[in-house]
Amino acid sequence: MATRYWVASLPVDQGFSASSLWSRLQESISKQAFDTSLYRFNIPNLRVGTLDSLLALSDDLLKANSFIEGVSHKIRRQIEELERVSGVVSSSLTVDGVPVDSYLTRQ
Q1: Beta partners for residue 94, in sequence order
Q2: Which GO CC terms are listed, alphabetically (predicted)?
Q3: What is the gyration radius of the CA atoms in the chain, in angstroms?
């Protein structure tokens, strides 16, 4: 039979320390299942905010990335349209020394 592991994440509220919460968890579980081994896995605190705020920022970053990508493609299409209408191909147009198409499509 395969070993089963459960991962429990407990918030440390005001007035409790992580070690006191760990002790309470051990006591509670040992009353119900004395042969259950518990292993503590410390997760470092986030430098800024909470996991929820980090996920929200990640979502915002995806939205901003999509928006910026869309705007850059519109600008490229406008430049191509201007070149087509004027009949002059401006091969000298670069971004950071790289042709616009190469700059926009690099990853």
Answers
A1: 99
A2: vacuolar proton-transporting V-type ATPase, V1 domain
A3: 28
